């Protein structure tokens, strides 16, 4: 897999916190507007026992070609204090993933949401286009404009493609080799999914098993790939995700068909063993399991499976 030589910025620029929060709020609003089922789940979480929402991470997909890859998004957020946390490689999918930890900002003990709580981690995946067949590479490259990746954040905020709407023939041909590629060609930089931080929620939803049971009872289809509840090898990272709803997409040639859209995930990070005896009200995010889990992340990506 290719290396990720990205710039590193360690400080949060004074006076820019509100701007960064507004960027995230705009990305979130676009995501909820474009994904009705995800919005329904989001509203249910917010309404149950008057939950105050907290986010674990926001996830995006990109093409690693001509400036459209991970750096097209990460460079902006690193300018505002995000730091590289780690990376994962998925050779079978020809995908690599980078996750970024948020800048240190003062958050009240009862802080929640983007404006009053911890900023979300960022997880950005890129498809290694050069490892695809020549035919798939040609399809992707003919849509991408030179220097277009510089508009990645704006594209995510607006929910608009930087490139032209693809034809159904190109989409279906691409999907035969890589569903990741086909999904990204259709939805671009629109947020692929958000993940709630279950351990920062209150009442009923503070336990991921209760979250799982609640949404099963409500009739939502959950991702069963690798099991509905994904558990890391150390047992400290628990994840559940809903399957994407399928939305009608109209292609450039006038053909319409349903394509999986975005989805929602739930993440519970348990307290690290060395802090297990700490009083609950003293536990902070850094006392909990950090990072991602290779196997679980692989299964979670199947939430947009075209054949599910």
From TrEMBL:
GO molecular function ontology, one term from the record: dioxygenase activity
SMART domains named among the record's database cross-references: DUF1338
Enzyme class at the top of the EC tree: oxidoreductase
UniProt KW keywords: Dioxygenase, Iron, Oxidoreductase
Needed co-factor(s): Fe(2+)
Listed EC numbers: 1.13.11.93
Similarity section: Belongs to the 2-oxoadipate dioxygenase/decarboxylase family.
Protein's name in the database: 2-oxoadipate dioxygenase/decarboxylase
Organism: Arabidopsis suecica
